[in-house]
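Quick review question:
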């Protein structure tokens, strides 16, 4: 069989690694800390190369959950203004973890349950499950209902697929948003020339922000934020929410091109995703491209009558999304 799932203990934490032996691709996940996909090695320009960025020793001593690998953001991505919101007539005050706001939900550093792992002729798979009341019971009081999030990572060939399922086990309506916050290497080759890169994003509009929070106004992208024809990674300073996404068939596609290698990485997502947050961290050669199902602070924007992507599920209802990460060249 060309596919395997291995487990190993690092610093007392179990790491699951998916393998495709035919291509040499691997994907390493840390279930005990947000089900974080912290390493993804895929073929590019004749070699297997690391696509993601995480701090050395992340698996053994995970910290800075929003700055490593692939953070999973649920039941809300990005910020809620001052951690305050109301839903169905009840007021809520979230813990403030990015002053003066609450950020990135509850699942990002939580211990997840491993539901299943297997390998067959089609690929190697790992399924994780997070439930607010079970995995972070201390946070249940801060959200209107309980919620279940299940994520399946699948590795086959030079492609990593991510299937996301959200369900509502309660009798009340569940409001939520979902996103990921992956840190990608660009250039793909460490030490490569950032001038020889192109970032191509399918967004025609952006949300106007005030202190990282959308005002409610959407404008056409300007020169700073128009990536439809590609921009070099050099000198970019971004922390912006893009929207107005174009889709190729069933997927939106973000392309991170390393011209020196004549290779590129593609992040694909289905039509349930309507925003892209683009963030350039201080580290050189890294960029975060974050597909979201809603904009930042959607729950408060929608309370003002602004359509912002907040999703709602009734009793026993569920949503399913998909994301694909792959290399070309």
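Suggested answer, residue by residue:
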């Amino acid at each position: 069989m060309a596919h395997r799932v291995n487990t190993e203990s690092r610093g007392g934490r179990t790491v699951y690694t998916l393998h495709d032996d035919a291509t040499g691709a691997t994907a390493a996940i840390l279930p005990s800390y947000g089900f974080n996909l912290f390493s993804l090695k895929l073929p590019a320009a004749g070699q297997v190369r690391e696509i993601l960025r995480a701090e050395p020793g992340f698996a053994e001593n995970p910290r800075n959950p929003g700055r490593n690998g692939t953070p999973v953001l649920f039941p809300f991505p990005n910020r809620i203004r001052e951690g305050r919101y109301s839903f169905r007539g009840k007021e809520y005050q979230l813990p403030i973890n990015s002053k003066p706001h609450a950020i990135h939900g509850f699942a990002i550093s939580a211990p997840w349950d491993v539901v299943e792992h297997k390998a067959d002729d089609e690929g190697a798979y790992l399924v994780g499950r997070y439930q607010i009341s079970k995995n972070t019971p201390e946070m249940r009081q801060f959200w209107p209902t309980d919620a279940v999030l299940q994520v399946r990572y699948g590795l086959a060939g030079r492609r990593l697929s991510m299937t996301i399922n959200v369900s509502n086990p309660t009798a009340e309506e569940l409001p939520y948003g979902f996103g990921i916050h992956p840190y990608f290497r660009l250039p793909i080759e460490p030490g490569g020339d950032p001038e020889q890169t192109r970032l191509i994003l399918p967004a025609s509009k952006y949300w106007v922000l005030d202190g990282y929070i959308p005002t409610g106004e959407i404008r056409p992208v300007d020169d700073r934020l128009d990536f439809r024809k590609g921009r070099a990674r050099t000198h970019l300073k971004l922390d912006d929410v893009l929207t107005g996404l174009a889709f190729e068939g069933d997927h939106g596609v973000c392309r991170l091109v390393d011209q020196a290698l004549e290779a590129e990485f593609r992040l694909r997502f289905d039509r349930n995703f309507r925003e892209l947050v683009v963030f350039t961290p201080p580290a050189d050669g890294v960029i975060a491209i974050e597909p979201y199902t809603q904009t930042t602070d959607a729950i408060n924007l929608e309370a003002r009558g602004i359509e912002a992507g907040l999703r709602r599920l009734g009793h026993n209802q569920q949503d399913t999304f998909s994301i694909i990460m792959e290399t070309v060249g």
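Why it works: The longest helix spans residues 298-303. The chain has one domain: 3-328.
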